[in-house]
Structure formats: structure tokens, C-alpha cells
Amino acid sequence: xxxxxxxxxxxxxxxxxxxxxxxxxxxxxxxxxxxxxxxxxxxxxxxxxxxxxxxxxxxxxxxxxxxxxxxxxxxxxxxxxxxxxxxxxxxxxxxxxxxxxxxxxxxxxxxxxxxxxxxxxxxxxxxxxxxxxxxxxxxxxxxxxxxxxxxxxxxxxxxxxxxxxxxxxxxxxxxxxxxxxxxxxxxxxxxxxxxxxxxxxxxxxxxxxxxxxxxxxxxxxxxxxxxxxxxxxxxxxxxxxxxxxxxxxxxxxxxx
Length: 256
Fold this sequence. Notes:
Number of strands: 11
CATH architecture of the largest domain: 2-Layer Sandwich
CATH class of the largest domain: Alpha Beta
Largest sheet: 6 strands, mixed
Structural class: alpha+beta
Order of helices and strands: EEHEHHEEEHEHEEHEE
Radius of gyration: 18 Å
Distance between the termini: 15 Å
Number of helices: 6
Shape: globular
């Protein structure tokens, strides 16, 4: 059973494997999330339920922050959830599902940009401030500021700022097959996300990288923040098969 991607970035996914034989936690790398799911795993194991955890850390923007030890888990988590969920659905055992989730996480890289901050409900005020002509490069999904603040640029230049660190990090190379995921941060119209996708796909094509699969939309958001993130996943044959497998959730729907 696969839990759908959620617009609440605090939540992680739980995948039940083999009709209750085990549970896989897919947890974004934020300290509070990790600690809460460690407690949940201990409680489940006390009831005789096997638990495995995969912590996602796809964000290339920062290596450490006030919220994490190591890289943050951001929109690439959706791709881990979908592919691992399809593995569980076909009947793979817990260790196999966890190994696939780990492999996907190791092959996906992400980075985001904010045009506006968000207002975290318990704080009641913006998590950071931006002038009308400023943007924040490398933001997190809980409203954290990013790696640098710059003056507003044309969309294609912003995409280059996000995509270059992504491609350099793994690194991606000519001949790779990838899934290109453009994620909205909550307040960005879909048409603007496709502007981001268009240029990102052009850059990948020019580098000899094949966009084999794609996803565009608001999936891992930061409340009402205006902005977007780009995730690139290096695919193998099994990942493509599991991505294409039927899914019927609130957020993702294809196949039967």
C-alpha cells in the first residue's frame, strides 16, 4: 500500500509491505521528522512489526542547516515514494523495497527557489523577508532560507542557477536517462512551472541527457510560498518499470 504524496512537508510516507509483514518509513532529512519516526519505529517494533527507514537527502543547496544534520530531504522524496510504493505493490519483501528506495534516493538531486516566503502557522509571520525584486536560491520546504539571495532574474537564468549544481553533484553525464520533476512550492501557477520545465528540458537535451520521464505540479509544497524546485533522477530499467506501474492516489493517477 502506497501513501500519496502530501502537500504537508512535515509528513513522511509509510509503506506497508507484504500485507503487514513490515513497514518502510520514508523520512525527509529534517531533525524533527527523523526523531519522530524513530520513536514511531520503536513503538511499532515493540508490537512485533518490522520497520525499515530510508532518510531522503536530495537537496544540493546546503549540507547542514539549523534543521538538519547533512542534506535536507525535499521534493525528490516523491519519486522515492512512488517507485518504492510500486515495488511493495508488486509483492517485494521489506528488504527489497528498502533497497530500491535507498537506490532511488542515491540517484536523485534537487534544488529550489523562492520568490516569496511562507507564513508558518505557529509563528504567524514570514519565515524570512524578501524585497519585491529579490529571490532566495536554495530554500527548504519548511520555509528555511537558502544559500544566497539575489536580484530577480529571467526564468531561464534562474533555472540555470538551480540545474547546474544538480547536474554537477552526482554527476549526470551525456547518455543518462532521467526523470525531470518540476515541483511547485504552493503558490506558483502551473503555467510558470512549465516555463521552468521547458528550459530545464532544453538544458538536459543539450547535454545529451534524455528526459525519459517527467512530472510537473505542486506535490511537496511550503504552504503559500511562490517558487519552484527542480529534481533530476538518474533512471535505470527497473526504476522506469516501477515509475510506470499503475498508481491511484490523490496526487498521482495513471494506469489501471
